[in-house]
C-alpha cells in the first residue's frame, strides 16, 4: 500500500508563475523526500513550449545543480531530440517528482531509488501547476514512473511506447494537452547492453511526437 503524504498543494502559490514555482518548491514538505534531497528541482525550458518531456525525478547531478536533465541521461536526451528534428531549447523538461530519492552511494555518487506512488501523488500539484502555465500541445512521458503517474498503475512502457493517445480524463488538468506519447526514459538507454538499438527506438518515438506538433 502506498504511503500517504500530505501533498504539495499547500506550498503551491495561489498566483503561480514558473519562477514562483521554482522558489516555492524549496519550502515543500509534502512528502519525506525533502529531508534527504539537496533542493527541489522544478521543470525548465521554454515557457511556451509545444512539447513537454516528463520524466521520473531529478537524479544525483540534477539534485546538486537544481536543474532537470543535466546529467548523462539529459545529454543523451538532447542528442535524441536533435536527431528527431526537435530543437532542444524549444521544449520544457520536468519530472513527476521534484525531490531526489536515493539509497546509498557508489563512490561520490548517490544511487537513485524509484519514488513510491505516494511520492508521485504528493508531488502532483506541482506538475499540474507547470502544465497549466506552459499549456503544451503534447507530452512525451519518459519511462514507467511517469507513465503510471499519467495513465495509472497498469501502464507498461513496452505496450504503450510510440503510440500517441489523447490526454487521459483520469488525470484532469487545467488546459489539458491534446495528446501524450509514452517512450522509454533515456537513462534506460544508458543502462542497456543494446544501447544503439534502444537509442534509435527513442529517436523514432520522438520523431512521431515531432510530426504531431
UniProtKB/TrEMBL annotation:
Q: Known SMART domains for this protein?
A: UDG, UreE_C
Residue span(s) of domain Uracil-DNA glycosylase-like: 42-207
Supply the CDD domains for this chain: UDG-F4_TTUDGA_SPO1dp_like
Which top-level group of life is the source organism from? Bacteria
Is Isomerase set as a keyword in this record?
Answer: no
Q: Enumerate the GO terms in the molecular function aspect.
A: 4 iron, 4 sulfur cluster binding; deaminated base DNA N-glycosylase activity; metal ion binding
Q: What is the name attached to this protein's record?
A: Type-4 uracil-DNA glycosylase
Organism annotation: Nocardioides antri
Amino acid at each position: 500500500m502506498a504511503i500517504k503524504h500530505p501533498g504539495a498543494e499547500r506550498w503551491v502559490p495561489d498566483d503561480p508563475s514558473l519562477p514562483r514555482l521554482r522558489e516555492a518548491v524549496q519550502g515543500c514538505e509534502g512528502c519525506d523526500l525533502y529531508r534527504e534531497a539537496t533542493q527541489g528541482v522544478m521543470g525548465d525550458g521554454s515557457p511556451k513550449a509545444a512539447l513537454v518531456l516528463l520524466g521520473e525525478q531529478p537524479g544525483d547531478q540534477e539534485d546538486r545543480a537544481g536543474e532537470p536533465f543535466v546529467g548523462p541521461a539529459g545529454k543523451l536526451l538532447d542528442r535524441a531530440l536533435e536527431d528527431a528534428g526537435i530543437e532542444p531549447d524549444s521544449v520544457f523538461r520536468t519530472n513527476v517528482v521534484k525531490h531526489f530519492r536515493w539509497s546509498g552511494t557508489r563512490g561520490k555518487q548517490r544511487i537513485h531509488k524509484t519514488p513510491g506512488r505516494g511520492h508521485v501523488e504528493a508531488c502532483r500539484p506541482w506538475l499540474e501547476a507547470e502544465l497549466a502555465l506552459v499549456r503544451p500541445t503534447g507530452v512525451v512521458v519518459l519511462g514507467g514512473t511517469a507513465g503510471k503517474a499519467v495513465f495509472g498503475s497498469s501502464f507498461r512502457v513496452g505496450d504503450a511506447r510510440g503510440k500517441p493517445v489523447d490526454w487521459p480524463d483520469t488525470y484532469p488538468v487545467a488546459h489539458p494537452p491534446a495528446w501524450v506519447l509514452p517512450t522509454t526514459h533515456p537513462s534506460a538507454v544508458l543502462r542497456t547492453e543494446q544501447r544503439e538499438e534502444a537509442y534509435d527506438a527513442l529517436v523514432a518515438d520522438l520523431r512521431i511526437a515531432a510530426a504531431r506538433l
